[in-house]
User: Which sequence fits this backbone?
């Protein structure tokens, strides 16, 4: 992997992934693309191009222009937004992925694209969900993720495209806010804890979902992409996780730092139904065995870092505002 094009580079994952990749491979070797431009470091610290991933012609042009050897295709509409606009989600999530697969096929590129625990549904075993199991999701996002996994397998088997992916759990980060996901409560709770001392969760207590701190997610992407291809049994997507938590457990950990933090609930029936259709916990032993995945942040370590980084971010903003 030497020259990388990232789609959806200004999203929750892309914002931090671009910075990490530029630190490893050199800033001029990572081309950030997104449908819009902004002033973030991802957009301004190296090459940036606007790209609507449903425009396959422009995607191919940019991959040729920068002579990339790898595409990291992150652009997607997440679960809650996709449920509100299912056809738009199909067009972006599937149209974008087919364009990335076709570009990779035509130019002989490696392709990373994430799947999600959202690829599982109510009939999937809920606890320690296996790598290979029933995938009958009941959301458009899940249908997109299962279809994407099958497409990646197909392009690997039929055309020899070096496709690689992971099923991400909910990702928690302090840099770019998530956009339209079901697990977003697990990011909002930290910001509100620092800014308001309280949070009203749209996901109900006792609703377990897998989560992961962003540094672990970014490390997993680089590790998978650098792994020996001969060791990869699965070309659709590997289960990976760091913790299985519910809102009360996050609140309890926050109170070790902010003792007066209060949590209450105003459950969003749409996102609660999505969350309840997903696993409580997944088994990531295949990723650990095939390419040495391991997480470094548990709930305690993540909470300490999230609160500290958000406090610093708010202080900096406060100084800027004066
Ligand atoms: C979402 N954050 O909530 C994404 C993710 C596992 C959840 O796919 O839609």
Assistant:
């Amino acid at each position: 992997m030497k020259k990388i094009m990232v789609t959806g580079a200004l999203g929750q994952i892309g914002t931090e992934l671009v910075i990490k990749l530029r630190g490893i491979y050199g800033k001029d070797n990572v081309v950030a693309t997104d449908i819009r431009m902004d002033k973030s470091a991802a957009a301004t610290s190296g090459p940036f191009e606007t790209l609507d991933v449903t425009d396959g012609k422009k995607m191919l042009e940019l991959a040729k222009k920068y002579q990339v050897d790898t595409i990291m295709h992150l652009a997607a509409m997440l679960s809650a937004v996709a449920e509100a606009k299912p056809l738009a989600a199909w067009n972006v999530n599937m149209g974008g992925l087919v364009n990335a697969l076709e570009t990779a096929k035509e130019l002989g590129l490696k392709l990373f694209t994430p799947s999600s625990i959202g690829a599982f549904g109510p009939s999937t075993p809920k606890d320690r969900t296996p790598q290979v199991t029933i995938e009958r999701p009941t959301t458009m996002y899940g249908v997109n993720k299962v279809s994407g996994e099958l497409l990646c397998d197909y392009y690997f088997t039929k055309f020899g495209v070096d496709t690689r992916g992971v099923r991400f759990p909910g990702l928690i980060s302090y840099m770019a806010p998530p956009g339209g996901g079901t697990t977003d409560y697990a990011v909002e709770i930290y910001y509100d804890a620092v800014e308001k001392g309280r949070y009203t969760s749209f996901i109900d207590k006792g609703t377990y979902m897998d989560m992961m701190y962003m540094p672990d997610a970014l490390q997993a992407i680089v590790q998978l992409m650098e792994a020996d291809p001969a060791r990869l049994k699965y070309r659709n997507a590997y289960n990976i996780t760091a913790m299985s938590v519910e809102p009360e457990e996050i609140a309890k950990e926050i109170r070790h730092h902010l003792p007066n933090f209060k949590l209450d609930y105003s459950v969003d029936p749409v996102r609660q139904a999505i969350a309840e259709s997903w696993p409580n916990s997944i088994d990531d032993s295949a990723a650990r065995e095939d390419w040495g995945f391991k997480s470094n942040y548990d709930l305690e370590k993540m909470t300490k870092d999230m609160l500290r980084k958000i406090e610093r971010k708010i202080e900096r903003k406060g100084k800027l505002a004066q």
Notes: The first strand starts at residue 4 and ends at 7. Residues 78-79, 116-118, 141, 168-171, 178, 181-183 surround (3R)-3-hydroxy-L-norvaline (CB under 6 Å). The mean pLDDT is 96.
